[in-house]
Amino acid sequence: MSAAASDSETARPASGPLLGVRVIDLTATLMGPYCTQLLADMGADVIKVEPPQGDTTRYLQQGHRPGMSEMFTNLARGKRSIVLDLKQPEALAVLERLLAGADVCLHSMRHRAVERLGLAYERVRQLRPDIIYANLYGYGRSGPYADWPAYDDTIQGIAGLARLQERVVGEPRYVPTVMADKIAGMTAAYAIAMALFHRQRTGEGQELEIAMFETMVSFLMVEHIGGALYDPPQGETLYQRAIAPHRRPYATLDGYLSVLIYNDRQWQRFVALAGHPPALCDPRFADLASRSRHVDEMYQHLAEVLATRSTADWLEALQQAGIPAVPLRSLQELTEDPHLLQTGFFQSQQTKEGRLR
Question: Is the dihedral of CA 85, 89, 90, 93 positive or negative?
């Protein structure tokens, strides 16, 4: 058992709406650490509790030295940390003292595991009656999947995201970002913030449950609910535009660009810019409702037109016409993007891991 500042510790914010709020973070991997990164950015004093072997994200990337991957270092921003082997009674006693002075506690263990440790809400609220206690689960604990282990890949699979990708690329695929963890982490952050707001007004603490599976289903159903909105269903559960095969960055004479011609005014301006080609003057594309019914054919004809000029020519013409159009950026290019640099998006700071941003 030891207590120390994290090797990656960066200065905690000196201001923010959560200044003075202490958070005990018992989570691991990405969903919970991303949630507490957001809370720390808003001023909270986050104390991350790690087992002796450390969080698994320490070892997922190379890093400058063993056990300090880039992902872990980024997620540890603005936090303090303590190492506790919660299987040892003396470590549990230390944790209980921390919880007694905490405003928020969150964990990402399955329900049975947290009960075995004696750290379920019923016990923690005895230490701090007005605590905000957040359970971050893979699946809600009242359902048949409650005891299933969960990671981003499995949630993308069961929540329908991989099947959506199949409609586009011909086989099930995961989205190349850890989407479920991050969306559920953001959801947990605003749920905790709202619970703190409720406590400020009423003096009441509460228990929260944020499940990755249910969160991702809710997220996808915003636009994809389709005919399933009705009971009984009256059509396919799908947003057709999002899975149209020709919805993609468009090839130009010398590269690619992203453009979305959305409303009727933008469409009319684009048709004029393109010289009123017959394919775009088809009555099927006359208004937004009609274009929505024939969206993939529309995208196919757009691709044919956009392939006739250079990226720079199109970007200049489209932006002057008020039509949303941007160049494609790689992740590497984003670190030198002129807009992000001018707005101060990246902030550099000297740490034990070197100068980071």
Answer: positive
The tokens of 244 are what?
């149209």
Residue 44, amino acid: A
- At 273, phi and psi to the nearest 5? -60, -35
- Token pair in block for residue 347: 């902030």
- How many angstroms separate the CA atoms of 120 and 133, rounded? 9
Together in a domain, 199 and 312: no
DSSP H helical ranges for the chain? 31-41, 70-75, 89-100, 111-116, 121-127, 152-158, 161-169, 179-202, 212-224, 240-243, 264-273, 288-293, 295-306, 311-320, 331-334, 338-342
Q: How far apart are CA 113 and CA 335, in angstroms?
A: 41
Looking at the structure, tell me whether residues 159 and 260 fall in a common domain. no
User: pLDDT tens for residues 112-121?
Assistant: 999 999 999 9
AA identity, residue 8: S
pLDDT of residue 329 exceeding 60, the answer is: yes
User: Could you tell me if 174 and 79 lie in one domain?
Assistant: yes
Strand, helix or coil for residue 228: helix
Pairing status of strand 104-107 against strand 22-26: parallel
CB under 8 Å to 332, separation ≥6 — which residues? none
Report percent pLDDT > 70 for the chain. 96
Q: Residue 230 falls within a domain, yes or no?
A: no
Work out the number of other CB atoms within 10 angstroms of the CB of residue 250.
Answer: 21
CA 109, CA 124: separation in Å to the nearest integer?
15
Cα 322–Cα 324–Cα 325 angle in degrees, nearest 5? 115
Q: Note down the domain range covering 71.
A: 2-220
**In angstroms, rounded to a whole number, what is the distance separating the alpha carbons of residues 321 and 341?**
26
What residue type is 289 in one-letter code? A
